[in-house]
Amino acid sequence: MKMPIIRVDADHPNELVDPSAYSRQINFVVKYDGAGELTPKDNVQTIDFKRTVTASPITGKIIEDGKYTTPWQSDQESFSDVVVPVVPGYHADKKMINGIKSVDSIEKTVNYAPNGRIIPVDPDNKELKDVKQPIYKTSATDATQVESGILLPKVKGYNCNYYARRSRQGYQGNL
Question: Which InterPro entries match (predicted)?
């Protein structure tokens, strides 16, 4: 005797068959960290996968390679690239997260750190109190970079003896 079979998918569900057998979602999540209240919200992309399965209408058991069974398909082949948002006063460790092709959920993290600042010091290399410490501005087009050309503070009684050292936190200098 031939066992009866049925087609099961999103358009033809069956209460005996778990929907995860024919429908599932995967996510590409880019998380951001380190910029306090300015930290961007997570960037979440979703791809829906669907297929048709062949199942027993009596037991709900899926019949692998059955008459109606199809491969998983999606309307999107891969996740899109994510350009890292610029956060004023902070720089990121990545400029972009490349979109990728996947069949599983993926999570990536972008870390922000405060931009560097100019710290005016006296001839003995001691920090001057009550003097502005200008912060380097984040590039408007690249979250990993700071702009050059910071304005140095004018400090009464001192001349600028400036040197620059570039680091991931920006520039540091002597006044």
Answer: Mub_B2 (IPR041495)
